[in-house]
Structures are given as structure tokens and as C-alpha cells.
Amino acid sequence: MLLSMTGFGKSVAVTPERKITVEIKSLNSKQADISTRVPSLCREIEMEMRNRAAAVLQRGKIDLMLQLEATGHASVPAIDLGAMKAYKEQIEHMAEELGIPEPADWYATLLRLPEVLKNDNSADSLDDQTRQAVFDTLDAALDELMAFRSQEGHKLEMFFAERIERISGYLAEVEDYESERVARIRERIDEGMRSLNHDVDASRVEQEMIFYIEKLDVNEEKQRLAAHMAYFLETMNAAPGQGKKLGFIAQEMGREINTLGSKSNHAEMQRLVVKMKDELEQIKEQVLNVM
């Protein structure tokens, strides 16, 4: 089974004090390249979050975002009575010293001053409940992303199987032109020898012709290409993480197709080779998305 490196996962959890949102998206990459965006409150657990994501996702360019929002009473700012008292005493002293009236509305005046209103979510560290909720939400988002990867991987399986089937069909058509190709090569050589107007050793000419035609034989290339395609399909059904291996197999398929083209010496066979190359290039492009 195949897993794509492309995916997206999101999970939201609500505790009595906070709303926790985790979003993760991944694209193809040779290794695990993780970037994170977390509130300063969660810096202490950022490394563990990265490690959990890397263990599950293994490869890909991964963006992880954590957002915390205060809910319930945590969203209501706390009034610092000590700060208000100190401000009030200073204002009263200032009014007495300067001979100016005191504020008509003490509440409106004091509540606008710095540090009088404070949010509970400005704490310096996470409580155990929130910490566990963050990890649970992260795990849920990772599960959703892996489900997305599985769906995309199934699409890739169908895509690869279709391309391999097409290449196999083109390879089968090559056989239709092989005998015709040999006959044409032999005919061209015979015409060239006759145009020399010299007596030649017929047996020696036949021997050299056999050597030349053997060099153009494509049976080995056909067999190896068929074997590589079978191995490609077999590898697709192996345990996830076979992306790099599929890339190597595709390279070997390309070598056999190129050699087949260089030996074809026949217009129709070369046309089939071009079609095979086109299908293979599509495989190579999509293999980069396989984990």
C-alpha cells in the first residue's frame, strides 16, 4: 500500500479554560522537514510535539500550527486590586499636591491604567490538563492527516498501475515490428554490398551481418523492462515507506527504455519508445509524492 506525502489534518478540543486547535499540512520532501508555530506558552513542549509528528509522518515538508484561545472564566480578565489601590493613592496624593480635583469616575480612570486588568492565559507555564489536551489534539490531527495520506496513496496506486499497464502494452507491440526490422536491415546491407560492384565472400558477409543484427537484438531489454515493471508493482504493495525504492526502479526502467530506443532502428518502434518515455516521466513525477 502506498501513502502520499501530501496531506492535511486538523483537530479542535475545548477544555474548561481553553480552546485548542492543531493544524498540520505536509508536502513532498526527501526528509522530515518540520516547521512549527506555537504560542510562547507552549515553547516548553514544542520539541516533543515535533518528535511526535516526525515519528508518525516520517517524511515530508511539514507545517504544524498550534493555537490556544481562552474560554469560559479564563477569557475574563482578572482585576488586580492591589494595583488599583496603589494607583488610587498616588492620584489622591497628586491631586492634593497640585491642587486639582480628583477623578469624577474612579472606576473608569483606574481600569484604563496598565497592569490593572490581566488575563489568566498569561501564565508562565502550562498546567498538566492543558498539556495533555494539546498532545491529544495533536495526535488526532496526525491521525486525520495520515487518513488523508492513505486516500491520496490509493489514487497514486491506481495512477501507477494504469501507467505500467500502458507501458506493458507498448512493449508488447514492439514484437510486431521486430521481424520486419531485421528484414529491412538485411535488405539495406545487401543493397549496399551490391552497389560496391566487387566480388565478396558471401559466407563472411553473412557472418558479419549476423553479428551486426545480434547487436541490435532487444530481447534482453524487453525482459529486463518487464521484470522492472513487475518489481515496481510488487513494491507498491509492500509496507509504506517505499517511495525512494520506487524512484530507483523507475530509473532502471528508463535505462531499458532508452537502450530499446537506441537499438530500435525502426520508425514505429521508436514511436512506441517515445510513448513509453512519456508514461514513465509521469510515473517519475508522481513517485516524488510517495512516502
Describe the protein:
The chain has 291 residues and is of the alpha+beta class. 62% of the residues lie in helices and 13% in strands. It contains eight helices and six strands, in the order E-E-E-H-E-E-H-H-E-H-H-H-H-H. A four-stranded mixed sheet has the order 1-2-4-3. Helix 1 (43-57) packs parallel to helix 4. It is rod-shaped and about 135 Å long. The mean pLDDT is 86.
Which class do the helix and strand fractions yield?
Answer: alpha+beta
The biggest beta sheet is recorded as: 4 strands, mixed
Q: What's the gyration radius in Å?
A: 36 Å
What helical percentage do the residues reach? 55-70%
Chain-averaged pLDDT = 86
Give helix and strand order, one letter per element, not per position: EEEHEEHHEHHHHH
Shape: rod-shaped
Spans where pLDDT lies below 50 across 5 or more residues = none
Strand coverage percent: 5-15%
Determine the N-to-C terminus distance: 11 Å
**Total helical segments:** 8
Give the strand tally: 6
In spatial order, strands of the major sheet run 1-2-4-3
Notable traits:
291 residues; alpha+beta; two-stranded antiparallel sheet; 6 strands
Concise overview:
This protein has 291 residues and is an alpha+beta fold. The chain contains 8 helices and 6 strands; from the N terminus they run βββαββααβααααα.
